[in-house]
Design brief:
single chain, 144 residues, mainly alpha, 4 helices, 72% helix, 0% strand
Amino acid sequence: MTMQATAPGREPRNLWRSTGAIVLGFVAVVVLSLGTDEVLHLLKVYPPWGQSMHEPGLNFLALSYRIVYTIMGSYLAARFAPRNPMRHAMILGAIGFVLSIPGVFIATHTNLGPAWYPIALTITALPCAWLGGLFYQKKQLRGE
């Protein structure tokens, strides 16, 4: 029988838990974002699916709740990380950054909406992830 030696209070590396923490944060962001989109479409705040949305106020609304959800998802990734919570939050942010880049190219080559919206999503991905990780770290320091 072998035992893994770790420093007291320090979790051993666990690839499955790390992956699960990041997936949990990612799924939370996607489900909350698309769920909110669907509610706003049903309430006719947004135009029907498939139609372009050029109204700056509506795009700003979408950006606003996506920022909040990204911070929340990154907080979850940090919270459930077996160790290095900020690293997990930032990995989630990097995934969001990479996945939002195609939106910039699509928006600049089609007429689906203003180009600033996907650009803003790309620019805010890493700062929001950092904030989510920071909120978790601050909570840990307070002992909650």
